[in-house]
Amino acid sequence: MLFAMTCPVCRKPVEPVAVALTSKIVGPNATEVLCLACLAAKFKTTEERLLDAARRYRDGGCVRFKGLPL
Ligand SMILES: [Zn+2]
Fold first, then answer.
1. More confident of the two residues 29 and 35
2. Residue 53 domain-assigned (yes or no)
3. Angle of the 47-59 helix axis to the 16-25 helix axis, nearest 10
4. Which of 23, 30, 66, 70 would suit a FRET pair with 56, their CA atoms being 20 to 30 Å apart?
5. CA 10 – ligand 1 centroid, Å
6. How many domains does the chain have?
7. What number of other Cβ atoms are within 10 A of residue 42's Cβ?
8. Which phi and psi (to 5°) does residue 66 adopt?
9. What does the pLDDT look like over 1-15, one tens digit per residue?
10. Is residue 50 assigned to a domain?
11. What is the pLDDT of residues 48-65, one digit of tens each?
12. pTM for the full predicted model
């Protein structure tokens, strides 16, 4: 189970969408949750592309992203 937490890399609060993306990409047993910026760096992508992916998941009906501000 993932909770709202602090990014282990940069110590900023982790955005709800980053928690949802981690759950989706890494899996529900992810041991650490990075903020959006660090997640983007880890997957060698950009925050905007991650948000695009999150919107696609949301529009596809994924409950993890339901109601998130995207
Ligand atoms: Zn971070």
1. 35
2. yes
3. 80
4. 30
5. 4
6. 1
7. 13
8. -65, 130
9. 455 589 999 999 999
10. yes
11. 999 999 999 999 999 999
12. 0.85
51 within some domain: yes
Distance CA 34, CA 8 (A): 7
State in Å: Cα 66 to ligand 1 middle: 23
CA of 43 to the centre of ligand 1 (A): 13
Q: Are 50 and 65 in contact (CB under 8 A)?
A: no
Q: Is residue 40 part of a domain?
A: yes
What is the domain range of residue 21?
16-61
Residue 43 · residue 16 · CB < 8 Å:
no
Q: Is the dihedral of CA 15, 59, 2, 24 positive or negative?
A: negative
Please report, in angstroms and rounded to a whole number, the separation of the first and last CA atoms in the chain.
Answer: 22
pLDDT of residue 36: 96
Cα 56 to ligand 1 centroid, rounded to whole Å: 23
